[in-house]
From TrEMBL:
The gene is galK. Keywords: ATP-binding, Carbohydrate metabolism, Cytoplasm, Galactose metabolism, Kinase, Magnesium, Metal-binding, Nucleotide-binding, Transferase. SUPFAM superfamilies: GHMP Kinase, C-terminal domain, Ribosomal protein S5 domain 2-like. It comes from Agromyces rhizosphaerae. GO terms for molecular function: ATP binding; galactokinase activity; metal ion binding. Its EC number is 2.7.1.6. This is Galactokinase. Residues 98-185 form the GHMP kinase N-terminal domain.
Amino acid sequence: MSGQDVVSEASDGFAARYGHPADGVWSAPGRVNLIGEHTDYNDGFVFPFAIDRRTAVALGARGDSVLRVASTFSDESIEIAIDALAPDAVSGWSAYPLGVAWALGEFGADLSGVTGVDLFVASDVPIGAGLSSSAAIESAVALALDEHWGLGLDRPTLAKVGQLAENRAVGAPTGIMDQSASLLGRQDAGVFLDCRSLDAEVIPLGFDADGLALMVIDTKVEHSHATGGYAARRASCEAGAAAMGVGSLRDLGVDDLERAASVLDDETFRRVRHVVTENARVLDTVRTLREVGPTGIGPLLDASHVSMRDDFEISVPELDLAVETAQAHGAIGARMTGGGFGGAAIALVTDALVPVIERVVRTAFDERGYGEPVIFTVRASQGATRER
Ligand code: ADP
Ligand code: MG
C-alpha cells in the first residue's frame, strides 16, 4: 500500500464509522535505524530515518468534550472525556492516541478550552516488526491534535509528547529516537539525534540519487528474550559507567577503552566497548555521508553488526545469516537493526541488486531450515504532515 492509500483508508474509514466526512487527515511514518544501537539510553547518538510506510489519522470536530478513537486495527471505538485523561485511564491500543492527548497537557498545552474530536486510524506500518508503528500513531495523532487545537507546540516537543505517552500511558520505557525520526524526517535524509542534548539535524543520505536501496530483512524471529535482555544490557551499561566514574557511557571515548579493559570485568567491558565504538560509528557515518557519500558507509554498517554480535551479544543466527549473505553478494553494508534478539536486518544495496539479494537470502534461510523471512525495501521519506 502506498502513503496515499492509507490516507484514503483513514478518510473513508472515518466516514463509514462516524457517518460524516472528516475535517482533516494527518499522517506520520515509521522508521528504520540506520546506525546507533543501544546508544540512546546511554545519552549517545542515533541516526534513524523516516520510511515510506505511514499511519494516517482522520479527524473530525465534535461539539462536546469527548475524545473518541477507532482504527482499522480493531473493531472497538473507545471514548473518554478530555478532563478524565490520565495515564491510568487509558489502556490497550487506545493508550497510544489517548496517551498522546493526555501528554500534550503535560507539555504546557491548555486542554481546558478545547472541544472533543473523533479520530480514525489506518496504517501500512507493520505492527511489532521493529519499524515503530507505535511512534507513527503517536506522531500522527500529536501533529493532528496540535494543529487542530492550535496548540503551537514545535516538533521536538511533539516528539517528547509521544515518548511520554509511550512511557506513562502505555508503560514502555522507550527513548525518543522513534518519534524524532517520525516527526523530523525528510525525503532521502536521516535524522542525526544527540540523545543527551536532543539536538537533531537532518542529514541528506543521497541513497535515491546514487540508485541505492535499503533492504529490510525481517527474520520474523520473536524477541523472546527481548525484555529481559534489554534490561540486562541497560544494567551492564549503568554498571560500566559507574565503575568508570562517569554519569553515562556517552562520556567515554575510544581512548578510554584501554582503561576500561583494566577496570571492568570482560563482559561489562565488551558491553561498554559496543556503546563507545557505536557512538563513534554514528559520528563517522554522518561525516562520511557529507565527505564521501552513501557508498562510503558500508564498513561502518558492517562493523556495527560485528559489535552487536560479539560485544553486545544481541544478535541471533538468523540475523547473522541475513547480514553475511547480503554482504557476500555485494551489499555495500549490512547490519542487524533494532533492539536485538530477533527482528530485522538492513542491507544497503544498489537498486539492481535488490532481487538478487532477496533470492540468495531466501535460499540461505531455506537451506538452514529457518522460517521464511519477510523482505522489502524502504525509502527515506517525509516526516509527519497534514495530508488533507
Ligand atoms: P512497533 O515495533 O511496531 O512499534 P510496538 O509494540 O511498540 O511495536 O507498538 C505496536 C502497538 O501500537 C500495537 O500493538 C497497537 O497497540 C499500537 N498501534 C500501532 N499502530 C496502530 C494502528 N494503526 N491502530 C491502532 N493501534 C496501533
Ligand atoms: Mg514501538
